[in-house]
Specification:
The chain is built from 21 helices and eleven strands. With 579 residues, it is an alpha/beta fold. The protein has two domains: 333 residues, ABC transporter transmembrane region fold, CATH 1.20.1560.10; 224 residues, P-loop containing nucleotide triphosphate hydrolases (Rossmann fold, 3-Layer(aba) Sandwich), CATH 3.40.50. A hairpin with an 8-residue loop joins strand 1 and strand 2. It is elongated, with a radius of gyration of 36 Å. The two termini are 45 Å apart. 29% of the residues are buried. The C terminus is likely disordered.
């Protein structure tokens, strides 16, 4: 709440999504807040029109007198039926407007959640590999699934706060026309309670931040168990994982309880203060000032509705402050990520790779004091298997990432059949690449869904089966319960390592790549499974160029060419993720 610029930035994000509707909702909320201030108390002055003693301007009730003049000037006879019709139409109109506002607001909130999630996810998936590789997936998942809805709640409480303020002001204006002294006394009493409870609002901010941290830890504890579930079972360490989860679960419970108490205490204090203030007002108004009973009833109704608004305003402020950290996380992610269009990847240009890929004068370092490559050059012939070997830390995976366009070096030239692989050609180049990592991923779904996962090719079953036969995986698939439509969950326990790699290889080949990049693709396999994969690759090289990263010298007989990074790079021993 102290950073006014943050408030403007938060609403700036809302204004990017249907600004006209946002303004309309805000105006409707203000109008409803004003109208609701008159709905109950309006009946009394209307009924007062039936009392002859109140039908002149000197009767002590200027509102009744003003209404009487309006009807008299327009030649309208006042009776009970007319008054009830006017009052009913007023209430129905406000009810319909309130209904329309609720639908419009719900539609806006849900639409905003959809839009901001779509925008943020688009920014995430279009971000550079180096950026994503250095970020926690849990933070991004939490923002998309948990914090975005809190941002829509934040917006809702701003509208609610505005409505309550207008509601209270309209009652205060009416009350001031009856008794300025008693109205000011009521406002002063509410202000004192607000001052006493200012620490509760600050505490809401702390509890909101702690809840976000606990939620993130809970998400991580669940993910940690699922990633290491087999180890947990083998080590009989279920209790360890349960304890880690329950710690965050208990923290969530404690925070929610504290937030509830932090919101409930102001309501209690405002209720007590409201009752005491009302008693004082009634006593002095009737016994000391001798306000007429009819006027006193209006005053009681007004004050009975004013004080609860103080409690509601305080509650809305608590919720706003509690959700501020969530809003800042959403805004921070939106500001941090660049919005890149997808159409940059829609080029129809085809990269010809019939001769060789050449890397010239490669200089690259994660840490400038320890360069991985210095003036490095290498050639990768088409339709051959080139093995990239070397000990850990020599940059094997980094070289693969540079070839794939994930990492960039400004003073390096990469050519394919003599054509420079410039930045504008990278999208087309990536369409020609198939990548197979050490640990093949599978989604929970059918084998078919896994095979055609990110392929833009429209393949028939016969074409898929043909690819499966190429890598000796057809019988494996057809032996499953429902064949290619067999549903697979927890794939690492459904297939052996060799079977997973063959299916993953089939998925890559469905993309019909010109270049196949394999990063330690057989390092986790036994010798028999490894031999099966290598035999498949040997048959495939007549149609696709293969670059194979490995630390296993036993695979060198399968390679047509070897790039040994132990002899061509500095090979520093420092630890660098992904090299």
């Amino acid at each position: 709440m102290q950073d006014n610029r943050f408030i403007f930035r938060s609403f700036g994000l809302f204004f990017r999504f249907r600004p006209i509707r946002l303004i309309t909702l805000f105006l409707i909320s203000l109008f409803l807040g004003f109208c609701q201030g008159f709905t109950i108390v309006l009946l009394i002055p209307l009924l007062g029109l039936l009392d002859p003693a109140l039908q002149n301007s000197s009767s002590g009730n200027s509102l009744v007198a003003s209404l009487n003049l309006v009807f008299r000037d327009n030649g309208i006879g006042v009776n009970l039926g007319l008054i009830l019709i006017i009052y009913t139409l007023t209430l129905v109109f406000i009810a319909l407007l309130n209904y329309a506002q609720m639908l419009m607001q719900s539609s806006y909130q849900q639409g905003f959640s959809y839009n901001i999630r779509k925008l943020l996810f688009k920014k995430i998936i279009n971000s550079d590999w180096q950026y994503l590789n250095g970020k926690s997936k849990h933070n991004h998942i939490q923002v998309l699934t948990t914090e975005v809805p809190k941002m829509t709640t934040y917006y809702y409480y701003y509208l609610s706060l505005a409505g309550k303020v207008i509601f209270a002001l309209s009652h205060v204006i009416l009350a001031m026309t009856i008794s300025a002294k008693f109205t000011l006394f009521t406002i002063a009493a509410g202000s004192v309670v607000f001052f006493i409870l200012r620490k509760n609002i600050r505490r809401s901010s702390v509890l909101g931040s702690e809840t976000i941290t606990a939620s993130r830890k809970m998400l991580k504890s669940i993910d940690d168990f699922w990633v290491t579930v087999k180890i947990a079972k083998v080590h009989n360490s279920e209790k360890f994982y349960f304890r880690k989860f329950d710690e965050t679960n208990k923290k969530m419970l404690d925070n929610q309880t504290k937030l509830l108490k932090n919101r409930s205490l102001p309501q209690l204090l405002f209720s007590i203060a409201g009752v005491i203030s009302l008693i004082i007002v009634v006593y002095f108004a009737y016994e000391v000032v001798s306000i007429p009973l009819s006027t006193l009833i209006i005053l009681i109704l007004l004050f009975a509705r004013i004080f609860p608004q103080f409690s509601g305003i305080n509650a809305d402020l608590n919720m706003l402050v509690a959700n501020t950290k969530s809003v800042k996380m959403v805004i921070g992610m939106d500001r941090e990520l660049e919005d890149r269009p997808f159409d940059q990847c829609m080029s129809k240009e085809t990269i010809i790779y019939d001769n060789s890929l050449n890397i010239n004068n490669l200089n690259f370092a994660y840490n400038h004091e320890h360069p991985l490559f210095e003036n490095f050059s290498a050639s990768f012939p088409a339709r051959k298997i080139t093995g990239v070997i070397g000990k850990s830390g020599c940059g094997k995976t980094t070289l693969m990432d540079i070839i794939a366009g994930l990492l960039k070096s400004s003073d390096t030239t990469i050519t394919v059949d003599g054509n420079v692989l410039s930045a504008d050609k990278l999208p087309s180049w990536k369409r020609e690449i198939g990548y197979l990592p050490q640990d093949a991923f599978f989604i929970d779904g059918s084998i078919r869904e896994n095979l055609v996962w990110d392929s833009t090719q429209q393949l028939s079953d016969d074409q898929i089966f043909e690819i499966l036969k190429q890598i000796d995986a057809y019988n494996l698939v057809m032996s499953q319960k429902d064949g290619i439509d067999t549903y697979v969950a927890n794939y690492q326990y459904h297939f052996s390592g060799g079977e997973r790699q063959r299916l993953a290889l089939a998925r890559v080949l469905i993309r019909k790549p010109k270049l196949l990049l394999l990063d330690e693709a057989t390092s986790s396999l036994d010798s028999k499974s490894e031999a099966q994969i290598m035999d498949c690759l040997t048959r495939l090289k007549k149609d696709v160029t293969i670059i194979f990263v490995t630390h296993r010298t036993s695979l060198t007989p399968y390679f047509d060419k070897i790039v040994d990074l132990d002899t061509t790079t500095p090979c520093h021993s420092f630890l660098q993720v992904g090299v």
